[in-house]
Structure formats: structure tokens, C-alpha cells
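User: Here's a chain of 97 residues. Predict its fold as C-alpha cells.
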Amino acid sequence: MEYLSKKLVRSEELESKIRFICSYSNSKYEIIEGHILDILKTNISFIEPHRIVITIKSKKLLVIYYDKDNMFLYDRRNPINIKKLDALLKHIKSEVL
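Assistant: Prediction complete.
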């Protein structure tokens, strides 16, 4: 089985907002770039979303996104936006400290 891997287009605007929120809440983050995997000689492809791992003390949050309009917490069942993410980080920070 052969496959072709392409980079998924990143949203610099969304990532800069997340960087700002993380720096404001004094948390660490790691951005892992997503890919599109096409299986050659078939019509099957997989989309691996961009992942952002946010760490506050011992707590970790996983934010995944495909583009600037589709952002989720942990998996696709939990949609989230920037305001909710900011509120969540503030809440976790206030409980941890």
C-alpha cells in the first residue's frame, strides 16, 4: 500500500490567538501540524487535524482544528471557540493556584 502525505494548511491567525491566550494564562503549548494522507490508486484519504496540546501545571488540554472555523476540545464531539477556550483556561488556572 502506497500513500502520499501532504501538509494541512495552518491558520496562523487562529494559532496566534491561541499563543496569546496561553501566554496570558501562563500555560505552555505545543502545536503539532496536521496532514492529509492519500492512499494511492484509491479514492480514500485521511485528514489528521492540527493538534495543540496546552499544559497548565499538571493538567493537559488537547485542542484539534482543521481550519479557523472548526476547532474542537479533545475530539469532534466537543466544539469550542476562542472565547470558551480562554474561559476554560482561566477557570483551570484559578482552581490550580
